[in-house]
TrEMBL record:
Response regulatory domain residues: 3-119
GO biological process: phosphorelay signal transduction system
Domain of life assignment: Archaea
Modified residues (4-aspartylphosphate): 52
Pfam families with a match to the protein in the record: Response_reg
Name of the protein described by the UniProt record: Response regulator with CheY-like receiver domain and winged-helix DNA-binding domain
InterPro entries named in the record: CheY-like_superfamily, Sig_transdc_resp-reg_receiver
SMART domains the UniProt entry points to: REC
Organism: Methanolobus tindarius DSM 2278
Entry GO MF terms: DNA binding
Keyword vocabulary terms for this entry: DNA-binding, Phosphoprotein, Two-component regulatory system
SUPFAM superfamilies hit by this protein: CheY-like (SSF52172)
Length: 124
């Protein structure tokens, strides 16, 4: 697993996430809208997707649902990274098809370890 699609519209967050992923040996593919995320998920076939929830067109929940409908991507790890932290949001995020989520701001020193724990849980 080494190609990660990052769907994030904030340039500072995109830069930070890309830096962390590259430092851990991942190749990154960027998308700044939900529509672009769906398109790139289908064409690029990433190994994992990091999904912002607040996007300028369709939100990350709908983006995740659309990606899950692509047969070859139904099992891909999708992890939300969001500023949503309200009661019930975790359930909405998981029901949309995400395998886990992290609240912003992320901790660049621990985020990869946390992501890898989610992926390990999926594989066991």
């Amino acid at each position: 697993m080494n190609r990660v699609l990052v769907v994030e519209d904030n340039p500072n967050n995109m830069k930070l996430i890309n830096m962390v992923l590259k430092r851990h040996g991942y190749e990154t593919i960027g998308a700044v809208t939900g529509e672009e995320g769906v398109e790139k998920a289908g064409t690029e076939k990433p190994d994992m997707i990091l999904m912002d929830i607040m996007l300028p067109d369709i939100d990350g929940l709908e983006t995740t649902r659309r990606i899950r409908r692509i047969e070859s991507l139904e099992k891909i790890p999708i992890i939300a990274i969001t500023s949503y932290a309200m009661a019930g949001d975790r359930e909405k995020i998981l029901q949309a098809g995400c395998n886990g989520y992290f609240e912003k701001p992320i901790n660049p020193l621990t985020i990869m370890n946390d992501i890898e724990k989610i992926i390990e849980r999926m594989q066991s």
